[in-house]
Specification:
Blueprint (H helix, E strand, L loop, with lengths): L9 H9 L9 E4 L5 H6 L3 E4 H11 L1 H21 L5 E5 L15 E5 L5 H70 L4 H4 L1
Antiparallel strand pairs: 1-2, 3-4
Helix pairs in contact: 1-3, 1-5, 3-5, 4-5
Length: about 200
Amino acid sequence: GCTSQEPRDDKLLATLVSANIGTTKPAEVQLPEKNSDTAMVANQPVTWGLQQLVTATLQQSPAIQSARYEWEKAIEKYPQAISLPDPTITYTYPLKDAATSADMAEHKITLMQEIPFPTRLYWQGEIAKTEARLARLAYERTMRDVVAKVQTTFYEIAYFQAIIRITGQNREILRQFVQAAEVESGKGKSVFSDLL
């Protein structure tokens, strides 16, 4: 039933963390960490793996927290949907300056309870269950979307870091080549333009 259903996302979280990561060790990217003592002491950016980023995002994402709150709210609507409306109690008394014993008969306490059509509560409960299921699906979809964004961003950062590293290596090779060409050209063994 929907009343005993607790929003549990441990299995879903584990599934999303391992999704598209593969069995090999994922690449790591370097991200500057704000207010980090280790980053300040080492004077280097902190290295994060994809799984660490996904786990941290699943725990701290405002979009995921909002979707989870909506799911929990939908679950809480079920008991209200299948319950009878609140009863109404009224008390009436006469507005006279001096009440006598005969006036006590005019004091009234009235209890009213609305009883809806028999199947109405059942269908309200079914609607609440469906809304809770939809809220759960929206929550899971939000988690998948956030994880996909984290993975895409992670691999884009890894790609650009690889480009920067390769460009730096190519630059160093070119610098060594230019030095060699200048040395060879200076000795007169070859023309500088031939080496280029």
